[in-house]
Amino acid sequence: MKAVLASLILAASPVWATDVPSGHSVELYEVLVDAVESETWLRFRFIAPHIARGEGAVEYDVAASDMMHLCAALALPYSAEYALAGDVIVISLADRATEFGVADPEATQFFEAFRPVDNTCIWEGL
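and the corresponding structure tokens:
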């Protein structure tokens, strides 16, 4: 498992809310900049109540398209606006706010990693 060497929390305030291809709304609640081995990882953490467990919940295959969209439509412009340079962009969706790095067995969470190349998100596959 990759060790997180350093973490800098950048406030994502005011909370950014956006719609995603699944038709749901998500809220950006935290952006972390981490040194992982020799790379800089930008972690965009979103609250996505629609992925909660139970009937009618959005499954991973649908959420994967949402995460690709969030990388291209939100993470890349956000990174440019705040002059953040990263080797990897991680998009995470959670049905509730969770503390980074702390296990929460009650939470539903999905993650995807992307390489930003020529202003495009290339799926990295964790």
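(Above: one complete record from the training split.) The two ends are 11 Å apart (CA to CA).
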